Amino acid sequence: MRVAVISDIHGNAHALDAVLADVARERPDALWCLGDLVGYGPRPNRCTSLVASHADICLAGNHDLGVLGTIDIDEFSHDAAASAHWTRDVLEPEARDFLAGLSPERVTARAGLYHASPRSPVWEYVVSAEAAEAALADTTAPVVLVGHSHIALAILQSGEAISGGLAPADTEIELGRGRWLLNPGSVGQPRDGDPRAAWLLLDFRAGRAVFRRVEYDIASTQAEIRERGLPAGLATRLTLGA
Ligand code: ZN
Fold first, then answer.
1. Does CATH number 3.40.1350.10 belong to domain 2-240?
2. CA gap 242, 63 in Å, rounded
3. What is the value of pTM for the model shown?
4. How big, in percent rounded to 5, are the helix, strand and coil portions of the chain?
5. What is the pLDDT of residue 160?
6. pLDDT at 40 over 90
7. So what's the pLDDT on residue 205?
8. Please, what is the average pLDDT of the chain?
9. What is the domain partition of the chain in residue ranges?
10. Residue 160 Cα, ligand 1 centroid: separation in angstroms?
11. How much distance in Å is there from the Cα of 163 to the middle of ligand 1?
12. Helix, strand, or coil here: 73?
C-alpha cells in the first residue's frame, strides 16, 4: 500500500493544487490529511472541498476546530486569530459540515495519525527528539504521523536510541529499521526554510518513505491574502518558508 500524506494546508489553494497534481503522478492507493485545512489562508472553501473529495482519511487541526468554535482561539497568535475570525465569516455550510465531522486523531493498522501529538492531539508541537520520544512512547504504532509544526521531520527510534531530525526535500527513509515519527511538513505554510509545498509518500509495501517538495504559485496566494484584507505578514512569510 502506498499512501500520500499531506498536512497544514491552511487555505492555500495554489499550494494544494500543486501538491495534488504531484500526488496524482505517483498514483498512490490512498491520501491521508493530518488537518488544518483552513486558517491563515485565503481559500478555505476550495481547500476544504478539494480535501473532502480526495482524502481517504482526514483529521481536524487546531485551526479547523478554532474556526468551528470547538476550541477557544484566545491562545492563537494575532494573525491566527484574525484569520480564524475572517474564515468563520466566509466558510460555507458544506465546508463547515465537513470540518465538523473530523477528529484530531485516528489509528489505523499501519500508522497512528495525530494532528499534533498522541498525548495532545490538538496542541503539542513535536519538534525535539525528547518530544518525539514521548510521542512514540504514547503509542504502539510502527509509524506515528504528526503535523502542526509545519516542519518536515523524520525521527527514528531503534531500541533505546533516537536519531534523525529535519527532513529536507528528497529525504528517503527505510521504514523497517525501527519505529518512526514522521511529519510531512506543510502544504500551505511551510516553516522549515523551504517555501515549497510539502508532502510525504509512504510506501508500506517497499518499506520506505520519501519527503517531497513542490513549487507553486506563491505570488497568486499572496495576492489573494492581500485582496481579502488578511494580515500582511501571512503573505510575506510564504516567500520565506518561515
Ligand atoms: Zn497548521
1. no
2. 18
3. 0.97
4. 35, 25, 40
5. 87
6. yes
7. 95
8. 96
9. 2-240
10. 30
11. 25
12. coil
